[in-house]
Amino acid sequence: MWVRVPVACLPCGAGVWAERPGPFSVELSSLLVRNVNYEIPSLKKQIAKCQQLQQEYSRKEEEGQAGAAEMREQFYHSCKQYGITGDNVRRELLALVKDLPSQLAEIGAAAQSLGEAIDLYQACVGFVCESPEEQVLPMLRFVQTRGNGTVYEWRTGTEPSVVERPYLEEPPEQVEEDAIDWGDFGVEVASEGPDSGISAQAAEIDWGISLESDSKEAGGDEIDWGDDATALQITVLEAGTQAPEGVARGSDALTLLEYPETRNQFIDELMELESFLSQRAVEMSEEADILSVSQFQLAPAILQGQTKAKTVSMVSALQDLIGRLTNLRMQHLFMILASPRYVDRVTELLQQKLKQSQLLALKKELMVQKQQEALQEQAALEPKLDLLLEKTKELQKLIEADISKRYNGRPVNLMGTSL
Question: Is residue 34 situated within a structural domain?
Fold first, then answer.
């Protein structure tokens, strides 16, 4: 016959059995109840928390690794758009700006193939508007015939004998906070003296200010314009126009595609010509009705002899030129050309992606470290749990044996231990 005794019924310091147990049995039962109800569940909960943290850190590690790779890819993709490697963004961007005139010269050379498209537009305007004397696209026609000339040549119609290009200011690199150069302020350091070793030669500084005595007359405060009292004349010089004849200076020395005003006019005329040819290609793709045929019977030969394929190829060439002048890379280069300090802003914009990639990589390493710490904590808790389970089973056997003695050797089985 088995005697089953619930764990909750074991005495914890006091209780009544069929026979009153001894102090040893009371202590054993108290340890067993504490292990089963508190110690073992607490260790299992800590181990489960360590496992949960490991899963959480593993997920964040994967996210950090993926995010770092994505931001690094965005950085190199942006560098590729600018045409740089990304090793030294600032220096490479400044080198691109210095190479910008040659790139604009290539665009100007490519515009020389637009002669047929310009003549087609001129013929259409002259035929439809009946004003053959009016010249269309003057800037585009100039670049098509003379290339990317200077503003001076566009303004005066003659090539300059001397071109004095403005100096491209290269902004200094930003000084790190821990490497500030305070310069030499002319302060002499003395080896002795109560003034902390610093003596300033204030008397030797000529500030260019002289204090007059107070004994001047009341009218002495008036400005003395001189004896001849000749009226001063202020002459306003217009930028770029006061240079000697034949000398291109200032904005006149810039090319048409470098100077913002002429570059914008050039782009506008490219878009105007592209819109005309695109519309013309659409009209040619539709079925020719009697009205359109009759309208172009008296048109110039250049209009009647055009094909749809030729018109589409002209549109493609124009779109390529517009794209080369208006893409993101060229926009930033033009901004840097207009304001060299803008290069710091572009550099910071690109470096920000690389910094985010580095931060995510550090976060990934931190998650790996925390994952290892959680794993080590779990490895330290598991032997404690195994030992506690083993000791608890021993307590259970001792208590069962003690109770069995009190019931004439009957088998005893403790319930509710769940070990």
Answer: yes
